[in-house]
Amino acid sequence: MTGAMYAAVSGLKSHMNALNVIGNNIANVNTDAYKASRYTFLESLYTTVSSGSNGTSQAGGKNPAQTGYGSTIGTIDMDMSTKNYSPTGCDTDCMIDGDGFFLVGDKGTSVTTNDELKSLDLTRLGNFSFDNSGYLVDGQGKVVYGFLQAADSGGSTTSVSPSLTAIRLPMASDGKSGTAAGTPVFPTASDTGEVVDASTGVNGRIMQDSLGIDEKSGQITCTTTDGKTVVVGYIAIGKVDNPAGVTHVDGHYYQALEGAGSVHLTSIGGAVAGTDKSPIAIISSGNTKLITGGLESSGTDLATEITNMITIQRGYQANTRIVTVTDSMLEELVNMKR
């Protein structure tokens, strides 16, 4: 009879773990780009009371007799599918429509191999803005990685670099901040010099309200005070072999650890193509695109979670009844000789 109690206790534990998953989903019902988790139950250990047999010429076969010892949580998986678009009105906010992640990390991280690519954090939350040093950063201050516009030896326009780097506004040159005239320095909040685009030579201060991101290519552009359009760079996307296999490392950040496979570099709409000399291969983006001016909404389906909560509650109650009944039967056994 104690076996029934042990089975019920394991059922209580597994239902409580399932409730933890439901509670976390409901707690994040309004968390942008949150990916809801789902659970599955798994039968626990079995013992064989009698083995099965195939039968003989004289006797028929019989099935094995086994007794189980409860249940446990089998899997906890994330639903990485794209969710609804939630407009914010901010032009630099982005949502990935399709597979893939934004690539973010610390300033100056060297990314020249696929192994180094895996060192960057992955996120679906595109709440981006430019900081006072001109870096494109997310809400937690991590810099966004992508491709920059490259210039040839003459300083004129040329192609986009395939080298992955932190996205930053064009350089400034003023000679008023302790540097010689013509020395390139990045603009800060106190910089009073003119902005110079390395690829076009366009002069003029960047107007912050003119920054925009193209949905079809991930191209970031800005307009200077003299009306010239400057290309800042292109947002890169990282695709993972098994998106549901990524591991939470902090908040809404993931990393492609064991179970996720490799991270592959891509650009929206094939705006940036790799070459034979590219340090990291750039694969096709497929149907993945950007939607700007908003964020991806939470993946929590509140109606489903509340329904699951009721089901788990009833399952938990049923297991407590097994404990109560088993205890009552053991009490009868102890008192049998009175």
Write the layout of secondary structure elements.
Blueprint lengths: L1 H26 L9 E7 L2 E5 L14 E4 L2 E8 L6 E3 L5 E5 L3 E5 L8 H4 L3 E3 L2 E2 L1 E2 L5 E2 L5 E9 L5 E4 L4 E2 L4 E3 L20 E3 L9 E8 L5 E6 L4 E12 L6 E4 L2 E3 L7 E5 L14 E2 L5 E4 L1 E3 L5 H33 L4
Parallel strand pairs: 22-23
Antiparallel strand pairs: 1-4, 2-3, 5-25, 6-9, 6-24, 7-8, 7-12, 7-19, 10-11, 12-13, 12-14, 12-19, 15-16, 17-18, 18-19, 19-22, 20-21
Helix pairs in contact: 1-3
Q: From the helix content, strand content and strand pairing, which structural class follows?
A: alpha+beta
> Stretches where pLDDT falls below 50 for ≥5 residues?
151-158, 172-195, 197-202
Query: From the alpha-carbon coordinates, what is the Rg to the nearest angstrom?
Result: 29 Å
Q: What percent of the residues sit in helical stretches (DSSP H or I)?
A: 10-25%
Main beta sheet, described? Answer: 10 strands, mixed
Termini, distance in Å?
21 Å
Task: Provide the residue-averaged pLDDT.
Answer: 83
Order of helices and strands: HEEEEEEEHEEEEEEEEEEEEEEEEEEH
The total domain count is 2
Strand content: 25-35%
Overall form: elongated
Number of strands: 25
Note the total helix count. Answer: 3
3D architecture notes:
- The protein has 338 residues and is α+β, with helices and mostly antiparallel strands.
- It folds into two domains: 2-51 and 61-79 and 300-334, no CATH class; 85-296, no CATH class.
- It has helices spanning 2-27, 114-117, 302-334; strands at 37-43, 46-50, 65-68, 71-78, 85-87, 93-97, 101-105, 121-123, 126-127, 129-130, 136-137, 143-151, 157-160, 165-166, 171-173, 194-196, 206-213, 219-224, 229-240, 247-250, 253-255, 263-267, 282-283, 289-292, 294-296.
- Strands 7, 8, 12, 13, 14, 17, 18, 19, 22 and 23 form a ten-stranded mixed beta sheet that branches.
- Helix 1 packs antiparallel against helix 3.
